[in-house]
Amino acid sequence: MNIYRGCIFPDDLLYDVAQDVWVRYQDGVATMGMTDPAQSRCGKFVAVQFRTVGRVIAKGKVYATVESGKWVGPFPAVLTGEIIETNEAGFQRDILLANRDPYGAGWLVKIRPTKWEEERANLLDAAAAFQEYRKKIEALDLNCMRCMD
Prior knowledge:
- By secondary structure, this protein is of the alpha+beta class.
- It has a single domain (2-117), classed as CATH 2.40.50.100.
- 24% of the residues lie in helices and 36% in strands.
- It contains 5 helices and 12 strands.
- It has a 7-stranded antiparallel beta sheet.
- A hairpin with a 2-residue loop joins strand 1 (2-4) and strand 2 (7-9).
């Protein structure tokens, strides 16, 4: 695991640095969420609106809309695929899931990718992503923080 200015980057994930999305691919399913720098910049979540399970979302579209105290915006589709599960119930129980645990309980969607081999090439492994994020974090003068109980 790499850590820079409080921002954590687990080694077992793939990253889309430009979109601030992490991907955990296992057994044909891609679980995705916001990176630690993204949740830190976003601030405390106040609402998440998910697209419907069963819907096929094309890369470049939106899996969910996230609202925080200072921002409303898309959780972007970095892979094309069918939404097979959302973390809607988790966020209903604790809206700060992604702020507390962005790479664990704070995941947003699970999809069955339909263009994995093609689109996987656009994702960076943890080592490459960490190098890109160090530059991004410096440019933004960002320090990551997570919400505590």
